[in-house]
Design goal:
This protein has helices at 2-47, 51-78, 104-107, 116-181, 190-204, 235-254, 262-266, 270-288, 313-327, 336-346, 372-381, 395-398, 405-425, 428-438, 450-457, 470-482, 490-493, 508-522, 536-552, 581-584; strands at residues 209-215, 220-226, 290-296, 302-309, 565-570, 573-578. By secondary structure, the chain is mostly helical. A hairpin with a 5-residue loop joins strand 3 (290-296) and strand 4 (302-309). The longest helix is centred in the first third of the chain and has 66 residues, at 116-181. The radius of gyration is 44 Å and the shape is elongated.
Amino acid sequence: KEHKFRSRITNHRDAVITISHHCINRSAQLTVSHHRKNILTMFSDEIAGNAARKRQDQAKARRRKLKEEQKKQQEKKDYPPEVMPAKTSAISSGESDHAPVQTEVDNNVGKPEVSGKSHAVKKALEQRRVRYNEKLSISSATAIQAAYRTYASNRKLVKEQKEILQKRVSDLVTLTKILSKQNNNYCPPPSLVNLLLHQMLFVMHSTSQFHIVKNEEKGILEKRFFSRISSSMGRTEANIVARLVEYAILPGLIIDDNHLDPAIVWLESKHGQLTFLKLIRLCLHLTTAKKKMTSKHNERMMHHVVAPYLASGEDLKVFYKIIEVLVIHGKDCASSEVVKFCQQHLFPTKSVIISKPFALGVNPIQLENLDLFQFIRSFLLFPSGKRVVVVPPNAEHERRQCISNADRLQGDGLFALALRIVEAKNDLNLASRVVSEFFTVPLFTWRIEQKSIDIIVGQDKIRERKHATLFVSFINAFIKRYQVDDLNDIQKVLPVDDVPLTICPAPSVLSLCANLVSLGTKCPLINGTDKSQFNFDDATLYFNFMSLLVEKVPLGAFSSRESEMGWIRKGSVLSPIVLSVVVRD
């Protein structure tokens, strides 16, 4: 039994040892297989891993290398000059024997090694720069080609449409003249007028564009649609517009039949109103537009020569007539609805200060800014249309001849148009604006013809009034509107912000006083040259108003010196100005 028991224990011990060895071997095998599996997984992930992650790691490595290189280059730049080795300095012959021999190892000391990865980063950046430049060149070339194709196609289309429009207008003029010989007045239907008008506006305007403008009422920026008047217009285009207005638009405006009136159709829609305003703006623009011609000065330089006005005398009469028809009630005028619409835009109740010169249709301005009186004032101040000195430099020697005959004739026509409108409307507001906007123009009597001066200072034969002289009646309307009873009010109602004193060395008060003195000396009802024509009421009002102006004129204006400086008060600021000698005279 003991022998059997010991043999059993021995067998159990051998079994336990065998099992333990087997377990140890098995665990080792599992551990090795697990590590082998992890290694295989790692290599498989590395081989077929995420491409985006690889690119991110590569980009990080490139950026890190690039920053290191930039830092090393900055450290090189920060070295003092005496530390940096002189690469191009030559060693003298005496020092060449004692100069140490620089080996390749010495040259490489202190310099960073350029690894293969940094070279790859530089090459990648260079390739990226090359690709960007190629892409930019292609896009720029495409934009230039598209712009040129647009310009060339538009120019070709405008040329074709202008030829068609010119032929249609010529046929219309011929038909009207043939019917007029038979005592038949031809009035084109509104459909034909609309066709010709839209074709004419397309030819006379450039391609429409959007512009960012500020809404004064809401105080926000808005994107609006504008089209500029073409700058390449000539006398042919001006004649086409004048003939179209005369033979297609005016007959429908003055006829009694509303079914043939094209303006009533235009007022029914917003698009029609904009078309109507574009027509008015184009007519006003052609009354003062000049043809800018470019001539060669020499082989390298070009200079601009200002040609005469585009509109001839007959064309100007047509443009003046359509303005009178649109703003004056009465016989041979437009309907009341049309007149009311045009008066709201040509004579706005709210005065807006517009910097001069006031160009219509050339700059992207709002269509609502069509103030007729400000437009005429802008032309009287700047006949050339450029922001130049208001008083010509040669005015002291040439006197009245400093204004060219063409500019004087053009300004006289516009001022005569304003006088006819004021007399026809009999409006206190418009009559007062003649004083505040026309009589404040320096050298006003030199900018208009003598016949207009005779109308202003002569006997008013249009209607009987309390004040027989026309310009005195304007002064009376100015006093009644603004209630100018004390001395401080007259400065507030005269325009002072549209023309700076740097280009106009005469304030509005001084110009008004000088112009009224010039008109008063030429008026037989005031100057006392003829006792039978002397008007006591006009003289009393005139000299009372002059007494207000004399006290507000700068004191230096009455000095006998050739050059005198005055002080102009704007708010609480006093500004010095050298007064114009011609205006003082």
